[in-house]
Specification:
The protein is an alpha/beta fold and 248 residues long. It has a single domain, classed as 3-Layer(aba) Sandwich (Rossmann fold). The chain has helices at residues 67-80, 93-104, 123-131, 139-148, 153-166, 177-180, 201-209, 231-243, and strands spanning 2-5, 8-15, 19-24, 45-50, 86-91, 109-115, 186-192, 213-218.
């Protein structure tokens, strides 16, 4: 499905019955990537899976991208779907989007799982962002880009330009401890201890600042440690957390 939101067209899927669960993909990704984590939709949830603006089948006529704007897009989509409060999982850039949602309108996010989502970009990440190019990716990943993003080479170039722009933007991803303390959602923070972008110490900063948070450091986990061999454990743990089963 596609709907007009804040000057762009947002593609999204809605499936299943139960508590609304929003799945937010990472940068250069798309909503369909979640099939590699959840081969079948988690039971007991109505999953809402958008492509963030400019990603996948969504458009971004302005050519500009901030995670804050992506959060406003998702909040507007949820309002259109009649969802006052949701649970959510956000991966990397999707997790940053989710942090904006949970600080802009705390009551809208009842519980969330943040995966490899930093409150700010440390120097090592900015160095990678400033030099990032398609040539740095292996061939299979470059082919996958063209499968995910259906609007042609201009869309793909815009995505790489956005990543380079992150290196110089110090305002969009700047969640101070005082701002993070406004989050009311129960929050599971998931980080790999071998993340090449964000040191695992950032996860402890998030955990200290978000009152109702819990921390899971994945041993030998890189950035986004929820795919491949990590997927079954993540899917089971995240859904149990969001259902409240972990308390029992």
């Amino acid at each position: 499905m596609i709907t007009d939101v804040n000057g762009c067209q947002i593609h999204y899927d809605v499936r299943g019955d139960g508590d609304p669960l929003v799945l937010l993909h990472g940068g250069l990704g798309a909503g369909a990537d979640w099939r590699y984590v959840f081969p079948s939709d988690p039971a007991g949830f109505r999953v809402i899976v958008p492509d963030l603006r400019g990603h996948g089948r969504s458009t971004n006529p302005s050519g500009e991208f901030t995670f804050r704007q992506a959060a406003l897009d998702v909040l507007a989509l949820l309002a259109r779907l009649g969802q006052a409060t949701v649970k959510a999982i956000g991966l990397s850039g999707g997790g940053i989007t989710l942090l904006h949602m949970a600080t802009l309108q705390p009551a809208r996010v009842g519980a969330m799982v943040l995966v490899s989502a930093p409150p700010y970009f440390p120097p090592q990440a900015r160095a990678i962002q400033s030099a990032f190019s398609e040539e740095m990716l292996p061939g299979p990943e470059r082919r996958a880009l063209r499968e995910r993003h259906v609007h042609g080479e201009d869309q793909i170039r815009a995505l790489f330009d956005q990543v380079k722009g992150f290196a110089a933007n110090h305002h969009d991803v700047n969640f101070t401890p005082s701002l993070l303390s406004t989050i009311t959602a129960e929050t599971l923070i998931v980080f790999g201890d071998r993340d090449f972008l964000y040191p695992v110490s950032i996860a402890f900063e998030l955990h200290a600042a978000i009152a109702r948070s819990f921390l899971w450091v994945v041993p030998n986990g890189s950035h986004g440690p929820i795919f491949g061999s990590h997927a079954p454990a993540f899917a089971a743990t995240a859904t149990a957390f969001l259902k409240g089963e972990w308390r029992r």
